[in-house]
Amino acid sequence: MSDAADFAALPKLELHLHHEGAAPPEFIRRLAGEKKVDLGGIFDERGHYAYEDFWHFLKVYEAATEVLKTPEDYARLTTAVLEESAASGVIYTETFLSPDFCGGRDLGAWKEYLHAIREAADKAERDMGIVMRGVVTCIRHFGPDKAKETALCAAETHGDWITGFGIAGDEKASNPKDFAWSFDMCREAGLQLTAHAGEWGGPQSIKDALDDLKVTRIGHGVRAIEDLELVDRLAEEGIVLEVCPGSNVALGLYPNTQCHPIEMLRERGVKLTVSTDDPPFFHSTMAKEYEALHRAFGWDEEIFGQIAQTALDAAFCDAATKEKLAKRLEIRA
Ligand code: ADE
Ligand code: ZN
Fold first, then answer.
1. Does domain 4-24+70-332 have CATH number 3.30.300.30?
2. For residues 109-129, average pLDDT
3. Contact (Cβ atoms closer than 8 angstroms) between residue 127 and residue 133
4. Residue 97 burial (CB < 10 Å; 0-12/13-18/19+)?
C-alpha cells in the first residue's frame, strides 16, 4: 500500500461528516452564481475556502450556507457530497444534518429538506453503493433554546434513517449541561447520541459530555490524551471517538499527523474511528486521511480493517443495514 489509489480501494465507514462542511467550494460558487449571491471573501485566490482559525472557519462555514436555501439545493449538495465520499472508498457515511440550516428549525420545512436529502441519498446508494444515514446536530453557539427546537425536529423525524442526535459548533460557547434537556428528550425518542468535545475544550469537556449528555460517542475527543485516567475510562466504558486527524492538523490543534495523539489513544485501548469532518475545508478526503495515517504510523490494511469494524459496531444504523455492510467488509478481507 503506497499510493492514493490503494487507500481509496479500502472500504471505509465515516461517522463524522458535516453535510454543509463537505460542500465542494466549486459547488457553493456555482449555486452563488445561479442565485446571484455575493459570498464576499470566503475563498482564496485558488478557489479554496479561506479562514484564519477555528472561529473564523465557523463563520466561513455559515456564510457558505447562505446559498443553500431550498430542499432542491440540499438534494444537489447530497449528490455532490456522496460522489466525493464514494470516490474515496466510503461505503457508509453518517452525516451531520442541522435543521438550523435546513429550514430554520421549522418542523414542516425540515421534513421537506429531509425528504429531498433522502431521495438524493437513495439514488446515490442505487448508483454508487454508498449508504447514508443522518445524525441531527444542534449548534452549540446558537444556544440551548434553539437546540431544543432542533432536538424536537430530530425526535419527530427519528427512525431508520435519522438515527442520532449530536452537538457541534463552538465548544467554548456554553456548557454541555445546558443542552441536557435536548439530549434527554432525543434519547427517550430512541435516538443514539454523540457530542463534539475534546477538540477545543480540554479533558473536562469530554467528561462533561459523558456525564451530562450521556453520549456513547465523542466527536474528536482527542484531548483526552492530556488526562490518562480519562483515556482509561474511555477504553473501559467502550466510548468511541470519531477522530478527524486532518481537521485537527488543518485547524492548528497539532502541527502534523505524527504529533497527533490518535496512535497513543489506540495503543492505550480506546475505540477509534477515522473521519474527515469538513473535507474540502481541510484539503482532505477519506483516502488522504488513510494515506497520512499510513505514512505517520505505518497503519496497514489490518489496522484499517479494525478501524472499519469499530465504525461498523458504533454506527447508529439498524442491524439489517450493519449486516449488509459487514458482508461488504468481509468480501474485502
Ligand atoms: N462544525 C463543523 N466542523 C466542526 C468542528 N470541527 N468542530 C465543531 N463544530 C464544527
Ligand atoms: Zn465535526
1. no
2. 98
3. no
4. buried
Q: Has residue 233 got a pLDDT over 70?
A: yes
Distance, in Å, from the CA atom of 220 to the CA atom of 155, rounded to the nearest integer, reads 24
pLDDT, one tens digit per residue, over 52-104 is 999 999 999 999 999 999 999 999 999 999 999 999 999 999 999 999 999 99
List the domain boundaries for the chain: 4-24+70-332
The verdict on the CB of residue 199 being under 6 Å from ligand 1 is yes
Pair 296, 260: CB distance under 8 Å: yes
CB atoms within 10 A of CB 30: 14
* Residue 220, strand partner residues: 197
Does residue 242's CB lie within 6 angstroms of at least one atom of ligand 1? no
| Total count of residues recorded for the chain | 333
The verdict on pTM exceeding 0.90 is yes
Which grid coordinates are listed for 210?
A: 459523558
Question: How many Å apart are CA 190 and CA 90, to the nearest integer?
Answer: 26
| Residue among 278, 282, 289 whose CB has most ligand 1 atoms within 8 A, to mutate | 278
